[in-house]
Design brief:
The chain has 15 helices and 8 strands. With about 350 residues, the protein is α/β, with parallel strands linked by helices.
Length: about 350
C-alpha cells in the first residue's frame, strides 16, 4: 500500500507515524519553504520518530503521482492554494483524496471537500477523516476512535480498513460528509469558548456548553443539508474531551490565554501558542457567513440562530471586553439551550 501525505505539521507527522506503523510505503510532502523542518532533516520532531518506510519530498508532482491515496493535512485556509498547484499535475483528478483537517474556508464558506470539488477532483474520490485525538496520546498508544465520511459510502468503507491502526485508532464510517465536516470544524470554535470559560473560572459551565453547542450545531447542520444527528457523533461531541478538556488543544489554550492575558495581541500570545494555527478563529467567521447566507433566503420562522458561535466571533474580534468574556459566553449558552 502506497500513501502520500501532503503536509508535515504536527497532525501530518502523526499520520505519517501511524501509516508507517502499518508498514505502508509513505511519502510526505512539504513546501520547499519549509526545508528546515526537522522531520525532513532527522526523521523526528518533538512528537514522533518516523520509521524507515516513511520518505520525504518537496516535489509536489512526485508526491501526487506516488500513490493512489493522498492524505491532506495542512492549515485549512491554505487548501485552495495547494489545490491550485495540485490540479496542474496530470491525472490528479483520478486520485483518491482524504482530507485530514478541520475547518471551513473563511473567505467563501466552502467546506473543505467543496474546495476539492471546485478544483476538479471527482466527487466519488473525496473523503474526510476526523475525530478525537492528539499526537502525544496517539504516539503513546492511547486508543481512540475516528470517523471517515465520503460522498460515496463504498469509498468510506474501504478507508476504514486502510486507515485503522488496530488497538490505537479504530475508524468507523459515515456518508453524512456535510454533518461530519461542519462538526469537525465547529468543535474548534467551541474549544475557544471552553477556553474562555476556563480562563474566567467558569469550569462548571463546560457541561452546559457541550449540551447547548450540540443543539446549536445540530440545527445548523440540518439547515445546510446534513443530518443534525451528526452533531452527536465523533466529529463534534465525540471530540469534546480532546478539545474542551485536554490542554494539548490549541483552541482551548487560545481561549484561556486571551482571558488570562487580557489581550488579543498576537505578539503577546505567540510565545505561548501560534495564533495562526488556531483553526477556530477563522472557522467562526466562516460558519456565520453560511448562517447569514441561509437566513437571507428563508422565512423568519426557518432562520437558524448560532448564539455561541456568534459570541466567540465577537470576542475574538474585540467587540467584547475580555474581562466579561466568560459572562458573555455563559449567557449565550443559555440562549442556545432555549433555541
Amino acid at each position: 500500500m502506497k500513501i502520500s501525505i501532503l503536509g508535515a505539521g504536527r497532525w501530518a507527522s502523526n499520520i505519517a507515524f501511524c501509516m508507517g506503523k502499518l508498514n505502508y510505503d509513505v511519502l510526505v510532502w512539504e513546501r520547499v519553504e519549509e526545508k528546515e523542518n526537522p522531520l525532513f532533516l532527522t526523521r523526528k520532531n518533538k512528537f514522533v520518530t518516523l520509521s524507515e518506510n516513511v520518505n520525504f519530498t518537496h516535489d509536489l508532482e512526485k508526491a501526487v503521482t506516488h500513490s493512489n491515496i493522498i492524505i491532506i493535512s495542512i492549515l485549512s485556509q491554505a487548501l485552495d492554494d495547494l489545490m491550485q498547484n495540485v490540479k496542474k499535475i496530470k491525472g490528479y483528478e483520478n486520485k483518491h483524496y482524504v482530507v485530514a483537517m478541520k475547518g471551513v474556508e473563511a473567505s467563501t464558506g466552502r467546506r473543505l471537500s467543496e474546495v476539492l470539488l471546485d478544483n476538479g477532483v471527482k466527487k466519488d474520490n473525496i473523503a474526510v477523516w476526523v475525530g478525537p485525538g492528539h499526537v502525544q496520546s496517539i504516539v503513546a498508544g492511547q486508543p481512540t476512535n475516528m470517523i471517515v465520511s465520503a460522498y460515496r459510502e463504498q469509498y468510506a468503507k474501504r478507508l476504514t480498513k486502510v486507515l485503522s491502526r488496530p488497538g490505537v485508532i479504530d475508524v468507523s464510517h459515515s456518508n453524512d460528509i456535510v454533518g461530519t465536516e461542519f462538526g469537525a470544524a465547529a468543535k474548534n470554535v467551541i474549544g475557544i469558548a471552553a477556553g474562555i470559560l476556563e480562563g474566567s473560572g467558569y469550569e462548571q459551565k463546560k457541561g452546559p456548553l457541550m449540551s447547548a453547542s450540540v443543539r446549536e450545531l445540530g440545527r445548523f447542520i440540518d439547515a445546510l443539508g446534513g443530518d443534525g444527528l451528526s452533531a452527536s457523533g465523533l466529529a463534534f461531541l465525540g471530540d469534546f474531551q480532546a478539545t474542551l478538556f485536554d490542554h494539548n488543544s490549541k483552541n482551548l489554550t487560545f481561549g484561556r490565554l486571551i482571558v488570562e492575558k487580557n489581550t488579543l495581541d498576537e505578539n503577546v500570545l505567540n510565545p505561548y501558542i501560534n495564533v495562526k494555527s488556531v483553526e477556530g478563529i477563522k472557522t467562526a467567521e466562516a460558519l456565520l457567513k453560511l448562517q447569514k447566507r441561509y437566513n437571507d433566503r428563508v422565512s423568519a420562522e426557518m432562520k437558524v440562530e448560532m448564539p455561541i458561535t456568534s459570541a466567540v466571533d465577537e470576542i475574538i474580534k474585540g467587540k467584547v471586553d475580555l474581562k466579561t468574556a466568560g459572562d458573555y459566553i455563559s449567557a449565550r449558552i443559555t440562549d442556545a439551550l432555549n433555541l
